Amino acid sequence: MPIRVAGAVTGALLTLTAVAAAPAQAAGYRYWSFWESAGGKPWTYATQGPATARPADGDALGFRFAISNGTDDMSRPSVAPDFPGICGDVEKKDGTKRIAVVVDFGGPLDAPPGETPPKKLIEVGCAQVREDATGAEALAAVAKPLRYDSAAMLCGIAGYPARGCGEQVTEKTSAAPTASQAKASSDGGGPSVGVLAGGAAVLALGGAAIWKARRRR
Predict the structure, then answer these.
(1) Which residues are within 8 A (CB) of 155 and not within 5 positions of it... i.e. 6 or more apart?
(2) Which end of the chain is more exposed for a tag (fewer CB within 10 A), N or C?
């Protein structure tokens, strides 16, 4: 029994050390994400595509080109869904609706190989479209041309990017280091102080288990 406990503890510490030493691999996709806002609320990730979404007068639509897993904050449009600021000067007409449209082209790190984002990284506009118009029609009123693939996935807005559609991208990710982790790295690398402290706690618990097991013998 004590040998098994000690072995399990050693294995746990080795696992913790391996986790600290190995960089994480995160698979994301490079694509145009679609966001919605109703009544001035914060952006929320759309549950349907712009070709089927039918926003109401006063809503805002956001599009962001980025490498993303989908709903993380990094893929949100970097401009707030400010309908009054975007459409405040556009008078509502009978039979139409006004939709605030925000297009965020991302940055150089999001750009596909060989392509460069437009110089103006943010485009906003007020689309005045018929009352039954879709989100795609509102977008087209502000940022033509649009490019779709054979499955009707939105691939390009205002000509960007010129090629590709939703490619998978694998990138290394790591959490921001704490002060103690940064010091450990500068002193020659190895597992972080936090991981070692956690391993020491595991060993301490294992030692207590061994001691109790020996008392029962």
Answers:
(1) 31, 32, 147, 148, 149, 161, 164, 165, 166
(2) C
Tell me the C-alpha distance between 52 and 30, whole Å.
22
Q: Are 15 and 212 in contact (CB under 8 A)?
A: no
Residue 96's H or E segment, with its range, is strand 96-104
Here the tokens at position 183 are: 């010091």
Q: What mean pLDDT is predicted for residues 98-115?
A: 96
DSSP 181-192: HHHHHHTT-SS-
pLDDT on residue 12: 39
Residue 39 region by backbone torsions, left for phi larger than 0, else alpha for psi between -120 and 50, else beta: left
The predicted model scores a pTM of 0.67
CB 142 within 8 A of CB 187: no
